[in-house]
Amino acid sequence: MKILAALFAALVITLSGGLAQAKPDTVELYTEAVMIGDVPALETLLAPNYWHINANGHIEDKEHFINTIKNKELVIDRLTFTNARTAMIGDSKLITGTGYLKAKATPALPVGLMRITVVVVSNKGREQVVLFQGTPVISTEDCNDGNCKIQ
Question: Record's SUPFAM superfamilies (predicted)?
Answer without folding.
Answer: NTF2-like
